[in-house]
Design goal:
The protein is an alpha+beta fold and 306 residues long. It is built from 7 helices and 12 strands. It has one domain: Rossmann fold (3-Layer(aba) Sandwich), CATH 3.40.50.10480. This is Ribosome production factor 2 homolog.
């Protein structure tokens, strides 16, 4: 039996709080990522992991020591670290002759690897190489995806979902304009993925809406997709399942169209259209003779046409 699977009864209040924090919740916590260096990681891979850690902080754990593991051959080490540090996302960096400057990005479901995509770093510009001002720690980024491949190709579609999971940060109820200061831009073109980071500068425009300028901030990565390990459709569907308590209750007689417009259906009693008040027009007014004929029950004589 796995020592991490056994039922542990807390002996202190601190241990009780720790176990309560890891209990299943209706609204899950912000996903934390673990960044792991492989046994043969070079300087470039180490710098990439440091910069991604700087972007992800405080929702990331960086392992300083090298770990000899191969995610595509054996996933037990990743699953052990995931359970130990309560992380549902991971980024593993390695380097060898066959696959230089290698990154493996993935996510967990129930502490088991769900999706995993291997990316090769062809070009890298570090945070410290760009001398512009940086965004403060914990800034929630705006994510932009450009390129048809993110919508057409299944592997790229799953990579887009993975990147959104990895960089989205905490869920916030409100947004202020000054807080929109960090952009992560991903472009898929000619079999490559270009990742760029920008700081948003709000300039004076002479009106209420400020003029927007983007200033490159780093890190900057040119990536190429290598191997993939994608979850089956059934497992992927299971990972997206929501508890019943979170599902919105269906409201009667209310529907929505594709544009988000709300339509309501109103049920009314049967109306007598004869008593319906319409617009009064002189041309529709009854003549005195017609009124008298209606009262006596005799149909009025029609005037002869000339």
């Amino acid at each position: 039996m796995d020592p991490l699977d056994r039922v542990v009864k807390p002996k202190t209040k601190r241990a009780k709080r720790f176990l309560e924090k890891r209990e299943p919740k209706l609204k899950e916590n912000t996903k934390i990522a673990m960044l792991i260096k492989g046994g043969n990681a070079n300087l470039t891979v180490a710098e990439v992991l440091k910069d991604i850690y700087a972007v992800k902080k405080p929702f990331a754990v960086l392992y300083r020591k090298k770990n000899i593991t191969r995610p595509f051959e054996d996933q037990t080490s990743l699953e052990f670290f995931s359970k130990k540090s309560d992380c549902s996302l991971f980024l593993f960096g390695s380097h060898n002759k066959k696959r230089p400057n290698n990154l493996v990005i993935g996510r967990m479901f129930d502490y088991h690897v769900l999706d995993m995509i291997e990316l090769g770093v062809e070009k890298f510009v570090s945070l410290k190489d760009v001398k512009n001002s940086k965004c403060p720690e914990g800034t929630k980024p705006m994510l932009i995806f450009a390129g048809d491949m993110f919508d057409v190709n299944e592997e790229y579609r799953r990579l887009k979902s993975l990147l959104i999971d990895f960089f989205r940060g905490p869920t916030v109820p409100n947004i202020r304009l000054a807080g929109l200061e960090y952009v992560l831009h991903f472009t898929a073109v000619d079999g490559k993925i270009y990742m760029r980071s920008y700081k948003v500068l709000l300039k004076k425009s002479g009106c209420k809406i400020p003029r927007i300028e983007l200033e490159e901030m780093g890190p900057s990565l040119d990536l190429v997709m290598r191997r993939t390990h994608l979850a089956s459709d059934d497992l992927y569907k299971l990972s997206l399942k929501q508890p019943k308590a979170l599902k919105p209750k269906k409201k009667k007689n209310i529907s929505h169209d594709v544009f988000g417009t709300t339509y309501g259906r109103i049920h009314m009693q049967k109306q007598d259209l004869g008593k319906l008040q319409t617009r009064k027009m002189k041309g529709l007014k009854k003549r005195p003779a017609e009124k008298a004929a209606e009262d006596s029950g005799v149909s009025p004589k029609k005037s002869k046409s000339a």
